[in-house]
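Protein modeling request. Please complete all fields; requests missing the sequence field cannot be processed.
Requester role: graduate student
Desired output: 3D structure, token encoding
Chains: 1
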Amino acid sequence: MTREERDTMGVVQVPKDKLWGAQTQRSRENFCVGIETMPKELIHSLALVKKASAIVNAELGLLSESKKELILSACEEILRSRLDDHFPLVVWQTGSGTQTNMNVNEVIANFANLKAGGKPGSHHPIHPNDDVNKSQSSNDVIPTAITVAVCLQVNERLIPALRYFAKVLYQKVDEFKEIAKCGRTHLMDATPLTLGQEFSAFLTQIENGIKDLERALIHGSEIALGGTAVGTGLNTHPEYACKVADQIATLTKFPFKSAPNKFEALGSMDGLVALSGALRTIAVSYMKIANDIRLLGSGPRCGLGELRLPENEPGSSIMPGKVNPTQCEMMTQVAVQVMGNDVTVGLAGSQGHLQLNVFRPVVAYNLLQSIRLLSDAANNFVDKCLIDIKPNIEQIRWYLENSLMLVTALNPHIGYENAAKIAKYAFEKNLTLKEAALVLDLVTEDNFDKWVDPHKMLGF
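Delivered output (460 residues):
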């Protein structure tokens, strides 16, 4: 069952039960590529942009109050996820996102016209271009909607997840602060530290990730709206750009601001590329943390075995009793996906030709996926792994007591070369450091006990 809708190219048959119009239907027929649809967060941000624009256009005397209210009612339905089925377009479309902008314009217009007693496709009383898209171009609307969606997801989803991650890491640092253990560099034995100090590195990585995001949001929150087609602001009121930015900030309770140079805002995506770089760095931190924890938890008998990780599910379909570090594996997979997404965003950001970068949809898709994955991974990893990690005190103590690198404490007293002789002799003869030192007659027993004390080697 279809109905007729019309655009500037003629008549198009549209599914009767859908609110989209002719341009959306043309996009469906012309871009049968992949299954990745435009993210819901972007659609909702577009509705928010349309809402803010309608409010400002009415305030400036460019849109009647009755039309404003009809547009706002449709925007609210979108923002409440009641019209999600009416946004079918794939990511792989025009690089400006024009068809998705028109998809939103058409749905808002048709919903509003139905509410006013009209028919879908009538363009009366609300026209998708003349009313819903007033003072706008896809070239400034789509960049603005991406900025809004990304910044809100970072602020409301990712940063809280990272703060939760940091909170539990802080608890572990405190819990493990007295546990001295063998350090490792190059995957080889090194001088000692505490398990708390080891976890403090993870904590600082996550805290730095939060700071990087907060810095990236400063430039990343500049919106392009008001630049229209090429950045000149053609067909807008002189006050529109600043007023609509203020309105979006009011509606979202986030400090969005009008981009000071609309030509830069349309022609480049440097702010989003920088934000993607911050996401990549967090992914790198995830990889480091997850890899270290699964190495320290390896075993239970033939690995390092310094940590006991939660046992969440069977690990093998053939080896009975095997349990794997699955949460760490989840984290590392998320990390490589986000790193790959950042490569895509960086390449897309480099392709701003003249007055418009036409890689917007793929940037939106990758950024929003990265934010969602990093947020979910942090929460899941904390709840299913980190919070229940326990130290294997016996194994940690054994490694520490048998570490050859405790010999480093002798350097100031007998010199590097003599200390190396003790370490090598102990390893070759399977002796303790103390036994080797006494056999080689390089240190007295009393001095060895005084100088080689792991707890004096921990930096506090």
